[in-house]
Write a structure and sequence with these properties.
Radius of gyration: 19 Å
Largest sheet: 6 strands, mixed
Strand content: 15-25%
Shape: globular
Strand order of the largest sheet: 1-2-3-4-6-5
Structural class: alpha/beta
Low-confidence stretches: 49-61
Number of strands: 6
Distance between the termini: 43 Å
Number of helices: 10
Helix content: 40-55%
């Protein structure tokens, strides 16, 4: 019987992989273009957002990491969300603003970085799978500030062949998008940090409790995607209500749900 392996792009599996310090440092150093040996600390922070109301479901950021001079939010999104850029900006701005407390000065701010791994195409006019965005002056392209940075990996744009074996971002994106053992093993030979991630993947895939959590998360995502498909095909208020319930169940904020379903914030809040 073939060895069961979780799909790294299911956010539950990705979070578990990022709990491995070596894998976490390897992934961050690849995306942020840092020397992994110079990273002194990459500590996982609490990824549960503060509740606004007692009965609210907790919004969840996939992985939030604190480094010496920056905070990083890593998210995987498997379902198409056309407002993703606005959502990423909202959460990064929130993360930035929460750094300062009354009485403190502006020099407390660390750089805030968003890393989005998308299983859909956000910018169809662009062909590259990886993009990096900063706040720059329009004409001369100098930085307004380096305190906000957005990294985007669009998995559908990945090349079929591994053209550059020294491109660590490509290796990691291929690993996250892989589903076959032979692909995992090939990629693990190219990068010692991916080897650590693969070792972790094998361990968590054989953990019965983690496997149950993984399968529940995969089912929730599958149900959500099916609901979205049916809504596009048939429309209707009942479908929008069901989609809203599914999105609430996975912790998406009401404003995002409103943009996707067309329901009002009040209607969405009444479903909690």
């Amino acid at each position: 019987m073939a060895e069961f392996l979780m799909k790294p792009k299911i956010d539950f599996a990705f979070k578990e992989i990022m709990m491995d310090e070596k894998a976490r440092i390897g992934f961050l150093s690849a995306v942020l273009k840092l020397d992994p040996t110079k990273i002194k600390e990459a500590r996982i922070l609490n990824t549960y957002l503060q509740r606004v109301h007692e009965d609210d479901k907790q919004g969840i950021l996939d992985v939030r990491v604190l480094m010496e001079n920056m905070e990083i939010d890593i998210e995987i999104q498997l379902s198409e969300l056309k407002v993703w850029a606005d959502r990423a900006l909202f959460y990064l701005a929130k993360m930035y603003a929460e750094q300062i407390k009354p009485g403190q000065t502006y020099n407390v701010f660390k750089k805030c970085v968003s890393i989005s791994i998308l299983n859909f195409t956000l910018f169809p006019e662009e062909t590259e799978f990886y993009s990096c965005f900063h706040i720059k002056e329009d004409t001369h392209q100098f930085l307004y500030t380096d305190k906000m940075e957005f990294h985007l990996i669009e998995l559908p744009k990945l090349p079929q062949e591994l053209k550059d074996e020294k491109d660590d971002v490509l290796l990691w994106a291929k690993f996250i998008n892989s589903e076959r053992k032979e692909d995992f093993e090939m990629l693990a030979t190219k990068n010692t940090y991916i080897q650590s991630a693969y070792n972790t993947l094998r361990v968590i895939s054989q953990d019965e409790e983690k496997r149950m959590e993984y399968e529940a998360r995969e089912k929730a995502l599958r149900d959500y995607n099916q609901g979205m498909l049916e809504a596009r095909e048939t429309g209707g208020y009942e479908k929008a209500i069901q989609i809203a319930k599914n999105m609430l169940a996975i912790g998406l904020p009401a404003d995002t749900i409103a943009q996707v379903t067309g329901l009002s914030i009040a209607q969405i809040e009444s479903l909690r």
